[in-house]
Amino acid sequence: MKDYKLGEFEEIVLLTVAMLHNEAYGVAIKDKIESQAKRSVSVGALQSALRRMEQKGYLSSQPGEPNVQRGGKPKLFFSITAYGLKALQHSKDLRNELWNAIPKAAQEFNFSW
């Protein structure tokens, strides 16, 4: 089995890129994470995570059309790769295994949901 290293923030970013599909560029990703996860995201942290995951092969990027509002610079759009989807599935499976391993008695005693 491949070893998929995925931190919490990376997982959130990958899920957001997948959710935004063809509209996944820096600002849109940042805004969606902030609205969905109710947490502040710095541009620097997001850009670092995007580059890191692109280097790992979880994401790919492609420039859009040049934009006058951006001084002629194109937006950089991200998409999740098949390898990124496998990493997400691995993370989901692991979390489900851990949740399912919690004894019912412990859930009733320790958790208040």
Task: Describe the model.
The protein has 113 residues and is α+β, with helices and mostly antiparallel strands. The protein has a single domain (8-110), classed as Winged helix-like DNA-binding domain superfamily/Winged helix DNA-binding domain (Arc Repressor Mutant, subunit A), CATH 1.10.10.10. 58% of the residues lie in helices and 13% in strands. The protein contains five helices and two strands; from the N terminus they run αααββαα. The chain has a two-stranded antiparallel sheet with strand order 1-2. β1 (59-66) and β2 (74-80) form a beta hairpin. α1 (8-20) packs across α2 (26-37). The longest helix is centred in the C-terminal third of the chain and has 19 residues, at 82-100.
Mean pLDDT: 89
The CATH class name reads: Mainly Alpha
User: In sequence order, what are the helices and strands, one letter per element?
Assistant: HHHEEHH
Summing up helix and strand content along with how strands pair, one would put the structural category as alpha+beta
The neighbouring-strand order within the major sheet is 1-2
